[in-house]
């Protein structure tokens, strides 16, 4: 502190001493370069002024930039708030839309399932069907008795005749075949509408399948789309059949996958048997240069074998036998001298393991396998299990149950409509699939004979729903509720459900034709039924309420 006071005092004394007023004027000296100093001071003042202006300008620019940034920040913040509000409204709209869609689907599902109320209730199928009159019970009963019931006896007589002749023909086929080189043919089995007692359209055609196996020492190794390996979506429902030696491992010997040395031999396979000539595999009806069974080769072999068999036994019969359809190699026709004829299909199949599922080369008169990927892909048929399921369920239903009657009436209406407007993608197999689903879904008492009208409406509503959603799932594939009494293979129960309407999703023209045919069938239903119905007195219908669909 003293040092600081001393410095201040020293500075004051120095300033006083050097002040010009303490010196007289005469003793003062004026610098000679005063003007030069003044000029420099002015220049210095001017430079300071310019520097001040420059600094003021920079400060103004900084303030303007700051204001612009603040304004931009405000705009961005406002846009963010607006975007958040817009996203919130969009999300809210999507949630509302999804809730409405879920409610609509639940309502539709509950609408057709909750049809087990009063038997006289007439539910509306859809907006397109309002005003379409549904035949009453008396009309349906009269139609069924006159048009359908009388055909049952004809079917039984025809089945008996065809089965007897087919057995004789196959026995002759075995005798003309080489047991050491040709395929071994087993006994035939009847499947389809003729053996499920619901076929109504003439001409009656029996469908018989004939299992066959390769000669010793060969066997079939079957692989399906659901056996583990990935199959394209268009190959679902198909499988392949590999011809192997019986002593060959299913996965193949390691000698086929590893290059052995020149001094090494496989103890299981000799050098001769390790490589099979292509001619040998072709003799086993395989596709060229492969071990996979060729459906086209099988049908050619079967046609030739049937022709040889008929030539051997033709002298025993007073009729002719011929192949009736070029596109169906197993379609046969018996021609009597009177001019009458009987048609039936004899189709070779391959058994899947030890089950009653079969690989079938083609479907006669059907579009189920119209787009087969290749001749080495075989479609799987569950016709034997379908017949057994109908027989099993029929035992639990009331006497004279109406389930077969519903399918017969619907099949008749569909056939009549197709004869008027042309065929469509909808087939009798689709109609049978609808019945199988309803047989499993509804209790047995709902199939009493007096409930024919209500159950027929259920089938129409179920079919309309499937057409609208383009989804009709195969009854057995992916169905975990199949009765255990059938012994159905578990691998197909665990598979993904197979949509029978999948081929129509991308083929909009066929789908449109199918929907239009269904609509026309509903509109023409009363007219088609009344055409085959006798006159019913008014007194019989006074107690029956008739409402439009």
Characteristic terms for this protein:
disordered C terminus, alpha+beta, 10 strands, ten-stranded mixed β-sheet, 549 residues, Beta Polymerase, domain 2
Structural class: alpha+beta
Largest sheet: 10 strands, mixed
Percent helix, as a range, is 40-55%
The name of the CATH architecture of the domain at 124-248 and 282-534 is 2-Layer Sandwich
The proportion of residues in beta strands is 5-15%
Low-confidence runs of at least 5 consecutive residues: 22-31, 106-125, 268-277, 535-549
Through-space gap between termini: 115 Å
The number of helical elements comes to 16
Mean pLDDT: 79
Task: Briefly note the CATH topology name of the domain at 124-248 and 282-534.
Answer: Beta Polymerase, domain 2
Q: Per the principal axes of the C-alpha atoms, what is the gross shape? A: elongated
What's the order of the H and E elements?
HHHHEEHEEEHHHEEEEEHHHHHHHH
The first-level CATH class of the domain at 124-248 and 282-534 is given as Alpha Beta
- Work out the number of β strands: 10
Radius of gyration equals: 46 Å
Quaternary status: single chain
Protein name: Inositol 1,4,5-trisphosphate receptor-interacting protein
Subcellular location: Cell membrane; Nucleus outer membrane
GO molecular function, one term: protein kinase inhibitor activity
Keywords: Cell membrane, Coiled coil, Glycoprotein, Membrane, Nucleus, Signal, Transmembrane, Transmembrane helix
